[in-house]
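Protein folding task:
====================
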Amino acid sequence: MTQKKKTIIQVLGPTGVGKSTVAVELAKKIRGEIISADSMQVYKEFDIGTAKISKEERQAIPHYLIDIYSDCAQFNASIFLRESYTVSEEIIQRDHIPVVCGGTALYLKCMMEGIFPESGEKRVSREKLNRIADTRGLEYMWNRLHKIDPRYAQKVGKNDKVRIVRALEIYYNNGAPPSEIFAQTQTPFHDYTFIRIGLNMDRPMLYQAIEKRVDRMIEQGLLEEVARLREKYPSDCPPFKSVGYKEMIMFMERKISLQKAIELIKQHSRNFAKRQLSWFRQEKNIHWFHPRELAKIEIFIMSQI
């Protein structure tokens, strides 16, 4: 008996580009079921600010890893990897295809490359390293990384604060250079074939789409959602730190005007999209399309399956 071929499709790209719409249309064509790779959409009731796809927009396509937390428990890449693998196996058993949709780049990457067995003991916190980076500068931090792990430092841009800090965090908490730690990584998806579909458009068009989406969020009642959720959940609930929620909280605390809060949501969303694209540009095997090129995307996928 021949073993069933395991294929998984990732639909990725910057915030506001239209990933959910494309994923739903693809799923309808290829017997797909959708797994969300969004670190904030796991939280119930945090709907408008996370641009959560509505039940109507899902068009009866099964969606997973949305609305799975009813409290403020921390969701992370390890949990995502475990849960997404379990769901993917179930989808494959139904002779359907998992379609992973989202912009949390680390989640998408760890599916293919795995997560290393990190020590549970935290000798140095990421927050402390970020403070050192802000005080001493990124060049100082990169030079420190270069002394520890020259090979990995050469792969990391000197201005890539996130990766520099993360690499130093790994070293100080695990006692080994990042490149050695990464060599121990494992992924349960090792026997899957990944088809990576990247969505992008001209930068002015993307920024315009982002700004229109923010305006829709305001019209849909983002401010009212934040006010209601603040009554129910503690201030350290993870989604409150994300774009959309944190700016509205600043307004509610009378630190800025409502108009300024909206402007900041748009600005921070644009900045986030820029960081996402910078990350994805360093990734391999991503096939890029405009989100309106559904026919081309479908033809490409069918040629790969």
Summary: Residues 165 and 210 are 29 Å apart (CA to CA). The chain has 13 helices and six strands.
